[in-house]
Amino acid sequence: MEKADKRRKIMFYLNPESGPAERYVCEEIDRISQGERGKVWRATLLAGFALRKQDGRLPHMLAELLTEDTTFEEMILVMQAVFPEEMKSFGERQPLSTRQVSKVLSGQGPSANVSQEQDETRANAQAMFGNTSASGKTPS
To answer: H/E element holding 25?
Structure first.
């Protein structure tokens, strides 16, 4: 018996004439090599769902804000509007070093250390975007 294919094919249209966000995305897609597009689309979709997991409004708000002139500061303002308390100390947080992040992502080093670093990264993300329950949903 053949195993069912559980992969999902995602298809939708972008219309550069419908607004600045879609125009920007279409222009960016044209700049990306054909071989890299699938990776970028996949990463972008997953990143949008990561934002949605924290608050369902975020992907929509950031998508509406998107133009070729959108700044990081404007995105932070959106985050502050959605998470005012959590974002108060945003600039004061100490992120993991590049080396620590590389170790976590590559799975190198003692497994206990990687697990501890992953826990620290998760705790930092939860502190930044709001504590989440075991189900991954933000408490109401």
So the answer is: helix 20-31
